[in-house]
Amino acid sequence: MRHQVCIIGGGPSGLLLSLLLRRAGVDAVVLERRSRDYVLSRIRAGVLEQGLCDILRQAGVGTRMDREGFVHDGTIITAHGTTVHIDFKKLTGKSVMIYGQTEVTHDLYDELDRIGAPIFHEAEDVAIHDADTDAPYVTFSHQGQTRRVDCDYIAGCDGFHGVSRRSIPESVRREFEHVYPFGWLGILAHTPPVADELVYSGHERGFALCSMRNANLSRHYLQVPLTDKVEDWSDEAFWAELKRRLPPHLAEILVTGPSIEKSIAPLRSFISEPMSWGRIYLAGDAAHIVPPTGAKGLNLAASDVWYLSRALIAQFAGDGQLLQDYSATALARVWKASRFSWSMTRMLHEFPAEGEFLARMQAAEVDYLAHSEAAQTALAENYVGLPY
Ligand code: RFL
Ligand code: PHB
Questions:
Q1: What is the mean pLDDT of residues 45-54?
Q2: Residue 357 scores a pLDDT above 90
Q3: Does 208 share its domain with 249?
Q4: CATH number, residue 122
Q5: Of these residues, 137, 200, 307, 326, which one is catalytic?
Q6: Residue 44: pLDDT above 90?
Q7: Same domain for 189 and 154?
Q8: Is there a catalytic annotation at residue 200?
Q9: Structural domain range at position 262
């Protein structure tokens, strides 16, 4: 088969790219390794920047988000005995939307189905060929048959473990990685959120985050050692530890209940440069990973996809400049969002190996944040998302 663009990976990056291209008359196919049910069962991001919300609306998939999502005008940061309310709206004029990645993915599937965009699920052994020529192609096996997609461009939207990044020769690739000495244990529970806004809590026992999906669905996280397993954490142990890490007035009103999902994710910062080679263009987690503090992962995937969709559309219209500049344009925003995620992670987590000096620096940083509108504005500007 022949398509103008072959998109590898049907997570949010790949699905959104497919839709944005289709809207401009560019034809793309999506190859996804997993089943649709599997993709939809992954509980991940929950905070959408205004930039991503605007893209979804423009692409015609924002209706349910605007109906069921929750606009948050601020967030609460509490650590070392200091609590700071960051008022996004007052400081930046912008807000964020609470709407799960799972729901975004759902909405994208529904629209792609409606317009008949091709998606192959359970596409196995996806391999990229001749990416450094004008006639690249991708092979995969599907329902026992070997298939081949001839295309003009390949979009690598296949996440951190995908094949696309690794198809760029090692001699060309430069990878930057920072692994944090802990993970996040997350639970989802049918309980009301502890506050109207998200609560980021730094504590000497470790970081905690109280997030939410809706008025009766909470998403909470605890910093845990990398050696911990999900089985080590009963629901009771989770709630007891979360209470210890929250300020007393929130711990008192926290409503607990059985978890409906529980998982541990390690934290890392990772950036692979360049984000393109030959006819391959990487977007989202295929090119970079941020720690979840600050909720940038999905939003960064969206800005990559935005840049890439504009560049491919211009290319097919005869102007190749944006595509030539894609890697540099995307990376400039990626490094800034990575810096923000890294600095939020540094400010709020326990780093046992680093001792009292770091703890004092963290306390000074939160105290500064509490008393400086400039510092609050800088945090808010990054949290609601840098422009693109
Ligand atoms: P995804 O979502 O990983 O999708 C990539 C897709 O590619 C498929 N794939 C392949 N398909 C074909 N052939 C292959 N060889 C393939 N290899 C892989 C995969 O099955 C998958 O469907 O990347 P994408 O689309 O770039 O989207 C990025 C976001 O998913 C990601 O940045 C965020 O979810 C990160 N993230 C979080 N971000 C936040 O902003 N807030 C969060 O709370 C948050 N929690 C998380 C997260 C990421 C997690 N991961 C990846 C471990 C929690 C977890 C557990
Ligand atoms: C979430 O709701 O899953 C979430 C929210 C904010 C973060 C990370 C995760 O910084």
A1: 96
A2: yes
A3: yes
A4: 3.50.50.60
A5: 200
A6: no
A7: no
A8: yes
A9: 180-267+350-384
Q: Whose CA is nearest to atom 7 of ligand 2?
A: 295
Strand-pairing partners, residue 192, are none
What pLDDT band is residue 43 in, cutting at 50, 70 and 90? confident
Query: Within a domain: residue 358?
Result: yes
Q: In what order do the strands lie in the sheet with 124-129?
A: 124-129, 137-142, 145-150
The CA 159 to ligand 1 mean position distance, Å, reads 5
Q: Which residue type sits at 256?
A: T
Residue 194 CA neighbour count, 13 Å, CB half = 29
Amino acid identity at 281: Y
Count of domains forming the chain: 2
Q: Starting from the CA of residue 121, give the closest ligand.
A: 1
At 91, is the pLDDT very low, low, confident or very high (cuts 50, 70, 90)? very high
Return the structure tokens found at 161.
């473990």
Q: What percent of the chain has pLDDT over 90?
A: 98
Are 35 and 135 within one domain? Answer: yes
Residues 301 and 173 in one domain: yes
Bridging pattern class, strands 137-142 and 276-277: unpaired
Compute the distance between CA of residue 385 and CA of residue 333 in angstroms, rounded to an integer: 10
279 and 256 in one domain?
A: no
CATH code, domain with 255: 3.30.9.10
What number is the average pLDDT over the span 117-142?
A: 98
Contacts of 110 (CB under 8 A, 6+ apart): 61
Catalytic residue among 137, 220, 292, 307: 292
Run of H or E residues at 362: helix 355-371
- Residue 137 annotated to the active site: no
Write down the catalytic residue from 3, 203, 296, 349: 296
Same domain, 170 and 120: yes
pLDDT tens for 183-236 read: 999 999 999 999 999 999 999 999 999 999 999 999 999 999 999 999 999 999
- Average pLDDT of the residues of the chain: 97
With beta carbons less than 8 A apart as the criterion, state whether 85 and 374 touch: no
- Domain-embedded: residue 279: yes
Is 176 a residue whose pLDDT tops 90? Answer: yes
Q: Does residue 220 share a domain with residue 288?
A: no
The per-residue pLDDT for 45 is 87
43 and 128 fall within a common domain: yes
Q: Give the residue, by CA position, lying nearest to ligand 1 atom 30.
A: 298
Q: Which tokens is 118 given?
A: 């091709």
Which protein residue's CA is at the shortest distance from atom 6 of ligand 2? 295
DSSP characters over 158-174: --TTSSTGGGS-TTT-E
